[in-house]
Amino acid sequence: MELSFKNTFKQDLSAGLVVFLVALPLCLGIALASGAPLLAGIITGIVGGVVVGFISGSQLAVSGPAAGLTTIVASAIISLHSYEAFLVSVVLAGVIQVILGLVKAGKIGLYFPSNVIKGMLAAIGIILILKQIPHAFGYDADAEGDFAFAQADHSNTFTEITHLLSKLTPGAIIIFVLSMALLLLWDTPLFKKVKAFPSGLVVVIVGVLASVVLQGAPDVFHLKANSFVQIPVFSSIGDFATNLKFPDFSKIANPEVLTVAFTIAFVASLETLLSIEAVDKLDPLKRSTPLNRELIAQGVGNAVAGLLGGLPLTAVIVRGATNVNSGAKTKASSIFHGILLLVAVLLIPVLMNKIPLASLAAILIMVGYKLAKVQLFRDMYKAGWNQFTPFVITVLAIILTDLLKGVLIGMGVSIIFILVNATKDLIYTTQRITPKGTMKQLVLSEQVTFLNKAHLNEFFNEIKPGMSVWVDAGQTRYIEQDCLEILQEFKSRAAMENIPCTITGLKDHYSFLEAKIEARDQHEHGHHDHQHYNELFNNNRKWIAEKLHLDVNYFANLNKGQSPPYLIIGCSDSRAPMEVITGAQPGEIFSHRNIANQVIPSDINLMSVVQYAVEALKVRHIVVCGHYGCGGIRAAVAGGTQGNLDQWLSHIRDIDRAHSDELNAITDTEMRHRRLVELNVEEQIYQLKSTAIVQNALQKGQTLNFYGWVYDLADGMLHDLKLRDAKAPDTITV
Q1: Which of 425, 573, 651, 656 is catalytic?
Q2: Least confident among 63-72, 248-257, 585-594
Q3: Environment class of 132 (CB within 10 Å of its CB; exposed 0-12, middle 13-18, buried 19+)
Q4: Does residue 463 have a pLDDT over 50?
Q5: Would you list the DSSP string of 210-223?
Q6: Is 372 part of any domain?
Q7: Which of 27, 483, 625, 630 is catalytic?
Q8: What is the pLDDT of residue 520?
Q9: Is residue 573 annotated as a catalytic residue, yes or no?
């Protein structure tokens, strides 16, 4: 379905409503923690929703006042001696962000490693849960929106939880339990008929009604005054206008104003780029936000917020994640949330102040759970220590400090791993025994820098008289001077100690290190002059380096054994390699290929593959994949083949005859060919199911799923013929 306003209006309105309910107390809490007027937080939320939402290219991100800026804002207000002077810095910060967007500084956001981004999402989820636990139990000493480890009430994230044990509020606990129960049950069949109604709104309504009912209960069940949302109440729109603060541009010449502006612009831009990257990863449609446009949108938003007396804003992960989890489709949800904030503060502040924080705590805890699922930690662990370690350290660092510091720590750890891997993985070594003794081979990477010095020295120090050395630089484009000197020194040493040393593949400007062709022949088993042939080995070296760079244990793990879930029987056509087409990794597909993807029970080669796949490897899925434009199919129909090939293709001619009525009715030659390709796949599935190997496995209760695919050479698309539940075709005598 096309994502038009008409098609997505209901989902976006529903999501915008939930985001509004979550954002309202966060706006107030961040303003309170920053030492700014409470109205400033609401203004920033409105501007972030409406102004930034309208200009931004992000479909799911939501902007507003950010917890990561509270310390900067609080100290700036004090150092500048007035809130009005601080607003000048906010306006200037917006101008700076617009300039950053125009000079395309948004590409900085592309350099954040995915393990750090995922760590940031998980950390935000855990922080949401930890910070909302006190509110869930009625202990509201720390304002909503304070996500720093060291809190404004002189506690920290963990001690706050211990403090609540002596200050439990039964009424808040009842509301929280009711809210969580509703959220957990909302997606079950029990609420199927009302599922279209936003669960967040239902939770808030139930929370408000429960708090009213509890007022008639004994005092111990009453909620405290600070356990509710607390919007400033204005008697009229004029009263609202008189409470607005405006920038004092007479302070623009103050150097400290400019310093604060640059600080806000830098931190806000960085947090925005991080948040955008994170929300894009959560987007079910995997859309990508134009980062330079986002900086411009944020800059305009900050300038407008500053002019109206608001706090600086950024894209905020909590709001964005809530937006995604609430089913938003487009940026209309962000704009709706901004409009609702304006309506709430102008028209219904008294009603909004009846919302208990315990209900909102349930919504935020559910958002936190979805951000920090256990499966995410499992997936990162399976990705290897190079990915898992920076991920975990990012999570811990953000929890124990704040978002920006934690991400910078995670980035630092990622860089360390990159540097360590650069010294190990970008140079590949092998050793083999030849008739003339031990030959050690060193394959240099594309870039050989000072990071590889330790590995080079280690390799050459292991070389003893009686050995021979081959340095393969076929893929090397650049060698740093330090490494060149190491190569030169070893070459001199090799000459003195009579160690055969061959250096091959260097570019012209390093050719003084090259060995003569005669020396190279000592180490190359059968020298080939064919450039394409040599390129295969160069590509192999690059592939090895890439794999080891991502996981130093990649080949060691691959060598432990295989348990592929798929057996794919495909065509031998060089244009249809299944691993490439499907993006599968080594170890995922057990394969057999022959001309026109035939399943012939008398073919001992194929039957051996099927038997091993089914009985030894226990594959669960078997695919027969043909392809449009198959030369074997065309040759079978055209005739003129001889010998073994003609006998092999005779099975296709049998299929052609068996379906002649259907095929002859198709007048277009190409469409007739495509249909025969599909019928061929269907017949091979039937032949495969009929084999004794498959029948025996099914009788023993083994799970085997069969699929018929066709690959289209014209556009690269794989097509599932949906044959799993289809009846087998008529038997063809072969």
Answers
A1: 573
A2: 63-72
A3: buried
A4: yes
A5: HHHHHTTS-GGGPP
A6: yes
A7: 630
A8: 43
A9: yes
Nearest alpha carbon to residue 633 among 670, 605, 602? 670
Q: Are 69 and 272 in contact (CB under 8 A)?
A: no
For residue 559, being part of any structural domain is answered with no
Q: pLDDT at residue 688 above 80?
A: yes
CA pair distance 181, 404, nearest whole angstrom: 34
List of residues 6+ apart from 689 with CB closer than 8 A:
695, 706, 728
Amino acid at 264: I
What is the reported pLDDT for 159?
87
> Which residue has tokens 């020295």?
457
The answer as to whether 305 is a domain residue is: yes
**pLDDT band at residue 556 under the 50/70/90 scheme:** confident
Kindly state whether residues 458 and 321 are assigned to the same domain. Answer: no
571 is catalytic: yes
Q: How many Å separate Cα 651 from the centre of its chain?
A: 47
Q: Please check whether residues 341 and 215 belong to one and the same domain.
A: yes
Q: Are residues 352 and 438 in the same domain?
A: no
Q: Identify the pLDDT of residue 449.
A: 80
- Three-state SS at 43: helix
pLDDT score, position 522: 46
CA distance 568 to 726: 19
**Same structural domain for residues 340 and 435?**
no
- Average pLDDT of the chain to the nearest whole number: 86
In a domain, 260, yes or no: yes
∠ Cα 337 281 3 (to 5°): 55
- 594 and 693 co-located in one domain: yes
Half-sphere exposure of 408 (CA within 13 A, CB side): 8
pLDDT of residue 260: 94
Phi and psi (nearest 5°) for 428? -115, 130
Picking from 292, 263, 228, 249, the residue whose alpha carbon sits closest to that of residue 55 is 292
CA 622/CA 625 separation, integer angstroms: 10
Would you tell me how many other CB atoms lie within 10 Å of the CB of residue 109? 22
8 Å CB contact between 36 and 83: yes
573 and 541 in a common domain: no
pTM of the model: 0.62
Of the residues 571, 625, 656, 659, only one is catalytic, namely: 571
Whether residues 61 and 152 fall in one domain: yes
Please confirm, yes or no, whether 630 is among the known catalytic residues: yes
DSSP H helices, 165-290, are 170-185, 199-214, 237-242, 255-282
pLDDT at 263: 93
pLDDT for the residue 509: 52
The dihedral built from the CA positions of residue 300, 302, 307 and 309, taken in this order, carries a sign that is positive
Residues 541 and 570 in one domain: no
Buried b (16+ CB within 10 A) or exposed e, 45-83: bbbbbbbbbebbbbbbbbbbbbbbbbbbbbebbeebeeb
Check whether 617 has a pLDDT greater than 90: yes
Q: The tokens of 179 are what? A: 């809210």
Q: How many CB atoms lie under 10 A from the CB of residue 440?
A: 18
CATH number for position 493: 3.30.750.24
Q: 341-387 pLDDT, tens per residue?
A: 999 999 999 999 999 999 999 999 998 898 898 999 998 888 888 88
User: Quick one: pLDDT at residue 386?
Assistant: 84
Q: What is the pLDDT of residues 100-126, one digit of tens each?
A: 999 999 988 878 888 898 899 899 889
State how far the Cα of 462 lies from the Cα of 448, in Å rounded to an integer. 20
Domain that holds residue 698: 566-720
Q: How far apart are CA 718 and CA 330, in angstroms?
A: 30
Whether the predicted pLDDT of 676 surpasses 90: yes
524: pLDDT confidence band, cut at 50, 70 and 90?
very low
